[in-house]
Amino acid sequence: MTGRVATSGSRAGRSAPPEGPPGESERARLSAAAERAFRALASPYPGTWAEWKRYGAKSGWVLKVGIGKRTLLYLRPHAGQLTATVVLGDRAVAAALASRLPEGLKGAIRAARRYVEGRPIPVVVKGPREVGHVMRLLDAKREPAAGSSRSAG
């Protein structure tokens, strides 16, 4: 489901379908720094795509950002701030832990639960510093595997 929510008919006791993805008015509630971060992270590299998704009734809207067939990150604007979540596989976890990320974020990477898709690393983005942290996570995710001739991305 993207942009609009599909419904399969109404049932008694079922709530109304959720509203569409956040528009300009909802994003206007973000702080100025969070809005700049949103714009920077919504298109972090040339050739990226973005689509609004809703994964569940309680989850709210999320901007899924990717390149080609690969998802790079998820952006969730809420309560005047922005959360960017990058899902890292094992190779990207190793690269991120070897990078110049702050120790607190490295601790969060180590503590993150491992799923089949990887480890979700949420970062509350308040300004340019956190945008830099998210970009370092994306760089770790995009690095080609050691010994691979495949290009990133």
Descriptive overview:
30% of the residues lie in helices and 25% in strands. Residues 1-17 and 147-153 have low confidence and may be disordered. α2 packs parallel to α5 and α3 packs across α5 (128-142). It has one domain (25-142). A hairpin with a 2-residue loop joins β3 and β4. It has a 5-stranded antiparallel sheet with strand order 1-2-3-4-5. It contains 5 helices and 5 strands. The protein has helices at residues 24-27, 32-41, 90-97, 103-111, 128-142, and strands at 48-54, 61-67, 70-78, 81-88, 119-125. With 153 residues, the chain is an alpha+beta fold. The protein starts with 23 loop residues before the first helix and ends in an 11-residue tail after the last helix.
Through-space gap between termini: 24 Å
The biggest sheet, with number of strands, parallel, antiparallel or mixed sense and barrel status, is: 5 strands, antiparallel
Category from helices, strands and their pairing: alpha+beta
Count of extended strands? 5
Strand content: 15-25%
Count of discrete structural domains: 1
Integer average pLDDT: 79
- Computed over alpha carbons, the radius of gyration is 17 Å
Uncertain regions: pLDDT < 50 for 5+ in a row?
1-17, 147-153
Q: Write down the overall geometry.
A: globular
Number of DSSP helical runs: 5
Cross-sheet strand order for the largest sheet: 1-2-3-4-5
| SSE sequence, one letter per element | HHEEEEHHEH
Give helix % range: 25-40%
